[in-house]
Every structure is written in C-alpha cells, then in structure tokens.
Specification:
Layout lengths: L4 E6 H10 L3 E10 L3 H12 L4 E6 L3 E2 L3 E2 L22 E5 L6 E2 L12 E3 L6 E2 L12 E3 L6 E2 L12 E3 L6 E2 L12 E3 L6 E2 L12 E3 L6 E2 L12 E3 L6 E2 L12 E3 L6 E2 L12 E3 L6 E2 L12 E4 L8 H5 L6 E4 L4
Parallel strand pairs: 1-2, 2-3, 2-4, 3-6, 5-7, 6-8, 7-9, 9-11, 10-12, 11-13, 14-16, 15-17, 17-19, 18-20, 19-21, 21-23, 22-24, 24-25
Helix pairs in contact: 1-2
Length: 330
C-alpha cells in the first residue's frame, strides 16, 4: 500500500485542488469557514470523480459546516446543490468537524471503500440512507447527543462488526442496520421505546442482543434472519412483538418473554428451529397464526389458560408431539 501524501487546502480552492491531483493515496485537510455551500459541493464532486485517488479526508479544522447530505425533498440545505459524498467510492476515511449537527439523507451512501468515520460530539441526527452500502466500514461510535437514526441509515454495511449507540438515542428507523452481516453484538440503550419494522434484519452474525427496559414495541421483521442469536430476553414492558419479528433466528435456543406482553404477531418466531421449550406469559391476549411455525425442535409449550378453547396446534402450526400445558388462567 502506498504511503499517503499529505496536503492542506482552504475550502474555497479545495475542490479544484483535489480534482487536479494525480492518482495516488492522500491525506487531505480542508481548512477555513464554509460561507457558501457550493464550495463544499465542489469538494464532494472532486471525490466522486477522483480517478483512483484514495482519500483520507480531515474536516476537523473546517468551520461553519452544520449539515452534510440532502433533505427529505432530495435537495441540499440551501436548495441549490447536493453537499453529500454519495458515490465517493475511493473515500477511505473522514473526520467530521465539531460544529456539524446533521448528517442528512444519503450523505455517504455507496462509499464502498470507507473504513473509518469520526463523528463529532455536536451531531444530533443521522438521516435516511446516510451510510448505506458502506461495505468496508468495520466499527462505528455514534456520539452522545444523537437522538434519531433514520430509515436505511446503515443497511448493507456488511463489514460492520461493532456499533456503539448513545444513551441519548430515542428512535431507530426501518432498515437502519439491515443486512449488517458481520455485526456480532448489539446493546440498544435505555430510552428507546420502539424498534420499528425491518430495523436489524439479516444481521446473520449477531450473537448477543441486549434490549432496554424502556422498550414497549418490537416491529415486524425487526430481527428476522439473525441466524447466530442463541438466547434472548424480551424485557419487562414490551407489550407487542410484530409479525416475523424473530423469524429464521435458527440458532435461538432460549427465549424469555416479557410478563407485560399482550400480543405476538404472525410468524413472530417462525423457523426458530433450535427452540426447545417456551412459556407464554399469562397476560398475552393474542397469538397470531403461525407464530411458532417451523420450530421443529420445540418439545414443550406453556400457554395461558384462556387459550384452551382454541385448536392451538393447528393455529400455530406446531407438531402434534409438542407437549402443551396451560397455566392457571381464566
């Protein structure tokens, strides 16, 4: 690997300077004050058309940059230019400035070579598709102060092994970490009350999952195809588990459900083929069809007493050999 050559450019000329560099590996620091966002757009444009220039970009000395990316309308903050790095395929690392508050939609989408991102303490939100398909990103520390992670924020980050979520986090969007196939452990912080639909599907290497006591709702397919997850405790306070929420978690052997649980969706634990026994809490009012279909190793199932009136084996599609008992319910 080539030794990087270091340069420092002021923001007003940085885009042209980067564009003029020959092929190679560079450490580039950009300085100055962002007064016109189109100058930042010029830098992003130069990185997208860099002709085998591998860039480690340092924006830590740049002032006045509060936003990178696109608004939900698909336009940049000043409604004139895209100031994101989407498609900068040879961007290797980036240090973002301390005054940055928002990473907008698709800001670093498809930066395939991006290995390292240093996020500032000033950051408050990460938008939809912000780091989608950053297939070389291995670890990520999201700083305290970030309250929301948007839909599709990190999907397809297939090398991502470790992510640290902040205690300030309140919401995580759909597909936020979908198909992060190398992610091995995850602790969702206290304060998060809901995990939306399709939030962590296809995290095939996920072995350890810690859910917060503040959690109330787990959405459809939230953790489906997390095929390495062996044990799971649904914390007290969770009232609803959505359709297919943990389907195809084929290594899941031990499952403890929340005492306050009210409903379990269709196929919620479908094809959890290592699960041997399960006790459904007394307060559960609804178990949707096929909730445990394909649980081929299931031997014992304890249900609340009020489910005696149903043809439960047919409804849940469980084998006749499963020993079903009922708790002292109504």
């Amino acid at each position: 690997m080539r030794i990087p050559i270091s340069f420092s450019f002021p923001i007003d000329t940085a885009g042209i300077a980067i564009h003029s560099l020959p092929a190679g590996t560079y450490n580039i620091t950009i300085t100055g004050v962002v007064t016109r966002y189109h100058k930042m757009a010029e830098v992003a444009g130069a990185l997208k058309n860099n002709h085998n220039k591998y860039i480690n970009l340092d924006l830590s000395q740049l002032e006045g940059l509060q936003f990178i990316g696109m608004w939900e309308t698909g336009e940049a903050r000043d409604n004139s230019e895209n100031i994101g790095f989407r498609g900068a395929v040879h961007l290797v690392s980036i240090i973002l400035p301390d005054n940055l508050e928002f990473i907008g939609n698709h800001a670093f989408d498809s930066c395939y070579a991006l290995e390292k991102v240093q996020l500032p303490e000033s950051l408050r939100s990460i938008g939809s598709g912000a780091f989608g398909n950053c297939a070389s990103l291995r670890e990520l520390a999201i700083p305290e102060g970030v309250e929301s992670i948007g839909d599709y924020a990190f999907p397809g980050c297939s090398a991502l092994e470790k992510v640290q979520l902040p205690k300030s986090l309140h919401s995580i969007g759909s597909w936020a970490f979908g198909n992060c196939a190398s992610l091995r452990e995850l602790a969702i912080p206290e304060g998060v009350e809901s995990i939306g639909d399709y939030t962590f599907p296809g995290c095939y290497s996920l072995e350890r999952l810690q859910l917060p006591e503040s959690l109330r709702f787990i959405g459809s397919q939230a953790f489906c195809n997390c095929a390495s997850l062996r044990e799971l405790t649904i914390p007290e306070g969770v009232e609803s588990i959505g359709d297919n929420a943990f389907s195809d978690c084929s290594a899941l052997e031990r499952l403890q459900l929340s005492g306050s649980l009210l409903s379990i969706g269709s196929w919620a634990f479908g094809n959890c083929s290592s699960l041997r026994e399960l006790a459904i809490p007394e307060g559960v009012e609804l178990i949707d069809d096929y909730a445990f279909s394909g649980c081929s190793a299931l031997e014992k199932l304890q249900l609340p007493g009020h489910f005696k009136q149903y043809d439960i084996q047919s409804r849940l599609d469980i084998p006749n050999r499963v020993e079903i008992t009922y708790s002292d319910g109504l």
